[in-house]
Amino acid sequence: MSILSRFLKSGVPRENRWLHRAGRVAVVATGCLLVGCESPPRTYPMYVGPERERDEVARLSYAYPLTLDAVDGKRVTDVKVRPMGGRHEVHLLPGEYELVVRHKPIYMIDEEEPHVVRPAAVGLRAVLEPGRAYRLQHRVGSLDEGVHIWMEDVTGD
Fold it and tell me: What is the pTM of this model?
């Protein structure tokens, strides 16, 4: 039985079939967008003054499950990663910075009982150069190892 013939015999009154079909198309399209499409990163300038060219700033990107908490002791309140994820890119002037990065809680199950690990914030010292792109990376180890967070230069990737 073809999809069209199943649809015609679906029990939906003839005058409402277009609305029923539109609803199905909307659900499929939304699913495709959520699963298959990656949106461009949300960008945040972390300096005072007009927007600068890409070759004048250092670009630091990160994504869920990481959150950038502070830059040089200044809390970063408007650059939090949304709970459902997303990529973020912070633009900074060239120079040396102290970054505070946090990983979301991790739920681990061992042989005896589940554990919730809330990793401590990690301080990273970074020397950022103009026109370069950097990315915060992470690796979750065992319960004893915890979370490792580092920064990589990804210019040209």
Answer: 0.67
